[in-house]
Every structure is written in structure tokens, then in C-alpha cells.
Amino acid sequence: MQLSHIKKTSDELHLKPQQVEAVVGLLEEGSTIPFIARYRKEATGMLDEVAITSIRDRVKQLDELDKRRAVILESIKSQGKLTPELGVSVGKAETLAELEDLYLPYKPKRRTRGMIAKEKGLEPLALEIYKQNTAFDPAAEALKFIDKDKELATVDLVLAGARDIMAEWVNETAEARAQVRDLFLKKGLFRARPIKGKEELGIKFKDYFAWEESVATAPSHRVLAARRGEKEGFLLLRITVDDAEALTLLRNIFLKAKVGCAVVQVDMAVEDAYKRLMLPSLENEVRLLTKEKADADAITTFATNLKQLLMASPLGPRMVMAVDPGLRTGCKLVCLDPQGKMLEYQTIFLQQSEARAREAGETVKFLVKKHKIEVIAIGNGTASRETESFLRDLSMNDVQIVMVSESGASYYSASDVARAEFPDLDVSVRGAVSIGRRLQDPLAELVKLDPKNIGVGQYQHDVDQSRLNQALDDVTMSCVNLVGVDINTASRELLTYVSGVGPALAQGIVECRNRLGAFKSRHDIANVPRFNVKAFEQAAGFMRVMNADNPLDASAVHPESYPIVEKMAADTGVSVRELISNEKTRQRIDLKKYMTPTVGLPTLRDIISELAKPGRDPRAQFEFVRFMDGVNTITDLQPDMVLPGVVTNIIDFGCFVDIGVHHDGLVHISQMSDKFVRHPSDVVKLHQKVTVKVKEIDLKRQRISLTMKLK
Question: Which of 352, 463, 510, 668 has the most Cβ atoms closer than 10 angstroms to its Cβ?
Fold first, then answer.
């Protein structure tokens, strides 16, 4: 742990050095972010998961910067060119760009025009010209270097070679590159144009056929969209700056006088360096920098949406019939018990004939009665509205009908997880099971999917996949541990995200459970092979054992704090179970009596709060949503039609709303409120019920424009 990193991180994040040091130390010991945030509040000064994640990521960046710094220093040293001054400059560089600028003159590179000129012996001439002595005549001096056998037959060729050398000096000057890079970032422009002849094929990128926007202010979704258009071969994308302004910056650095033959030669070298070397190089750098920023914004948006999706309200343990709609191949029905176990499945046909439709209705009613079905979940894909209408016409008044997003269900049904669970079932039946289970408990079911396939991202396949996966893993782990898991019913996939567990131990838990039966207490987890003391410390507080002898096993109280609760109970003359059920007894407890050097008021307050509602689910109550009858496809829509809907995705420039026509409509950020909206997430949340009005319908591009401004 480098003290310089601790100080720098604490300064940047406005935290105390001891907080950063504590977090880094805990992470190095193998603690997870959820564990640190929940059970080590005294050590970190009550830092939340966001702050802890920021510390982890920044320290990792600084470590990577140091690794690159060491490689650069070793490379320059091996060349015998490391001076004390250069060593100090490299040591002080605070960004990768600064480091690479300093390294550029020493970086091994393929043979360049400047190298060739040096091989011809022109470096002494270039050095003299570069001094810009007003009395120096480059042309006269160049005569001394003319040699017909060395391709230096004329003065012009000699001077051109000297300029090639000087151009590389200009390009490799760190200050010059920094100033032009800064110009790109502050005043540069993105410019996109369609590739000639591909306008029709690339119609989805029509908004970018004449796009120009400032590099400094262009939002991430437009940057990523333009880059995708370029990648798919429909757009030409450039980042440009005012060449005259850039050259003025460079001339102010390199020209030492206003007149003189040598000055003219240096000026020519500066212009050549800018146009031939610096401009393409820095444009590529800035493209990468803007891509990194766009990636970061898109990843943040995706992570926010994923958290809301994973924390969506669960229906809970209810008898559910799940329906994967289909017209030609029929609707797949599955009946699930309250724990999501499949009881039975059938296929029904709704539109092939009246007889088949009647038979389908009888089948549904029979299964509803047989399994005491309380809720029917319908996947919101093709034929979903027709299926919903058919089921409502059956007049099963005691059965609620819910439309469920089936985004990602097809990925699950074809996955190794689904094949292992249901090896003999058709993929559409597996998909129906997933639809029903995600209604019962979205978190437990969605962890089985790659988050990128859930459908709540923004250009998720275009961003840095390593950074995206880290962010999504962080969010998933945070949600799973916030809710907690029942160790006796949780799937291997859900257990994988429990703090300190991972895939191998999760598999071990499932195998141990299958071999020995249900865990009767948290301490039984020790029976799992390779579940060591550290793993138990990290995981135990987030695992629940329902109906255990010790009621604390079903709570978020960590086993390390059981003695504290037991002492509280003993001091008040009751059992732990009575302490949990009696609020008046808990109110009499003086928390300060139970403070120790490692356990302070934050942990003690958490314990009392948890005793009030042991193992409580932090997710909101489930609400039923119904779309407008008779509006089933995009062709049923009319401008100014007011419809109920559900928010399915939130992006930087608005949100998408499911209005029951198989194509989500876009509410642009400007149409979300009459007041200024900083970000769409300030107005709506994922799965929120909203009322919208149709603005425009583009049938050709299958786009629906909506507004939340109803007046």
C-alpha cells in the first residue's frame, strides 16, 4: 500500500486518509465491498458502497499508472538516456497521457523519415537550424551535405531531410502535445457524414448524417451511436480542430524569432509535424479519451438501470401460471409453486380454430383450479396482447393477469444453466418458467442471465467489456447482499454473488445441501468443503436460515455480533426471541453499554434496527399494471392517444416505455417534465407506472415518440 496513493485518493475523493487506508487494507485482506459497507462501519467511518468502490477503482488506477511508469523508466534506462531531470519528470507525471508524452522520444518505433535523415548525417544541420540564429543561412550550410550517392543531390533535399528531423522533435515535445491535446478536448468538434451510396442501408443512423457537436459537451449516447455507425460502415467520423489555432499554439512554443531563414525552415517543420504526425496521432488519442468518457457514462447508466431492475418488486411466494405466447407454435403454459418449482406444463393454441380456442380455455381453467393459481404471468413478446385478451375473456375474476418483460428469457432458455435444470424441456417451455420466476422474484431469476442480455443498457456491447463486467458484477453483488439469500432455497447462480462465495463455493453449498439436507443453522455452512473462516466471515451475515433454532440466523445480524445480542437479552431478562418480538424491551437498551474498541454505535444501531424487522426485504411492494384494451400493435396507435405504460429502460436522453404494442416508445428528456430535468432518473424509475401521450409514430423505422406532458 503506497502512502502517496492513500493521500492522493483521499484528496480527490474528499475523504480522510485513515478512511482510505482502512478500505484499502480491508480489500487487500480479501473483504468484499458489501461486507465492508455493512459490517465494518467503525473502521471506515461509515463509508457506503459507492465511496468504497470509488476508492478501490482509483487506487487500482494509480497502481496501474505506477506499473507503466516502472516499465517506461526501465526502457529509457536500458537505452542509457535516463537523466536525473527526466527521471523526476516521469516520476511526477500524474496521467497516462503525460507519461506517454515523456516516453515518446525514447519509445522504440519503426524506421521514420527523421531516422533516415539522421542516418544520412543531417542531424548536425537540423540542430543548427533549430537554434534559429538570425545570421545563420540554412541553404548555404546545406551545400556541405550534398552527396549524389546518398540521395542528397540538391539543397532542397538536404533541407527537407533536416525538417524531417525537426518535425519529429516538435511532435515529441511533451508541452506541445499537451497543448494541442487540450485544444482538441476543449474546442474540438465531432463531425459525422454518411458514406456515399450507403445512406439507405444506414437509415437508422440518419440523425448522424450531418452531425457536428463539441467534443467537450457531446453526450455519451451520441458519441457511441456515431462510433457504432462508423464501425458498421455507414458513417465517416472525424474529430477536428481549427488548424490555424493549433499552429499558432505550436509556433508560440517553437519559433524564437519572427524573421530569418532558419525561422522559415523551423516554421515549415512545425507545420509538417502538426499535419503529418501530431494531428492524426492526437485525433486518435482524443477518440480514445472521448470513448472512455462515453463508456463511463454508459456503464453508469446501465449499472443504475440494472440495480433498479434487480431490486424490482417481487410478487413473492404465490402460485403462478406463466405463459410464453405464440400463435403458430402455440402458447407454452407452466405452473409454478410458490418457490418457483415447475409442477406441470401444457401447450395451447388460441387462433387455429374455434374448437382449439375452446379447448385452450378449458385447459387454462382446469390448470388454474388444479394448482390453485393466483397470478398468470404473460411474456410481453409477440402475441402477448392477444393472449392477454383471450385470458381476460375467460372471466377468472380471482386470478390476476400480469404482463412480464421477457427480455433475456430466450438467452436463459438456451443457456447451460437452463439445460442443466430442465434438460428434457423445449426452449420455449424453459422461457416460460423464467417469465414466471422473474415475476415471483426478479433478483433470484435475473442473476442467471448475463446482465448485458437483460435489455436495460445503452450501447452495452460497444463499451469496454472489462469495465462493464466489473460494474455489473458490483451492482449484482450489492443487490444480492442487500436483499440476502435463503441458503436452503437459493440457486447456485444466486449464491455465487453472496459476499465471499463465488462459483466454486456456491456449487459446494448446493452439493452439500443435496447430500446432507437443509442447513439447520448458519454454523452448518462450515460443513461445506473449502468454506474457510474468511469465507464464513464474509458470507454469513448475508445468508439466511429460516426457522432455525437461533432466530438471528434469519436476520442480517452477523454471527460475530451474536454475543452482543445475547448480552442485551440477558441484561433485560428476556430470551433473544423475546427481545426480537418486544419493541418496548429494545427501547430500554442503552447502546453505549455495549460499545467496544471495534464495535461502535453505527453497528449497534444496525443491530437494533435489524431486530425490529429481522431479515426484512428492502424491495418495494408489487403493483399490478394493465395496458389499454384494444391497443395491441403499433398500427393501433394514433397521435394524442393517452395510454398507461411501464418504464422499461432509462438512458441519458430519456426513457423507454412499454405501452403494450411490442415496441417500446421513447419519452425524450425534454418531454418528461415542464421543469428542467438534469437526468431522466430524476423523474422516473425502472418499472414505474406512468401515463404517456403519443406524439409521433414512425412505422418505417418502427419508432414511437411519447410525451409525459399530458396538457
Answer: 463
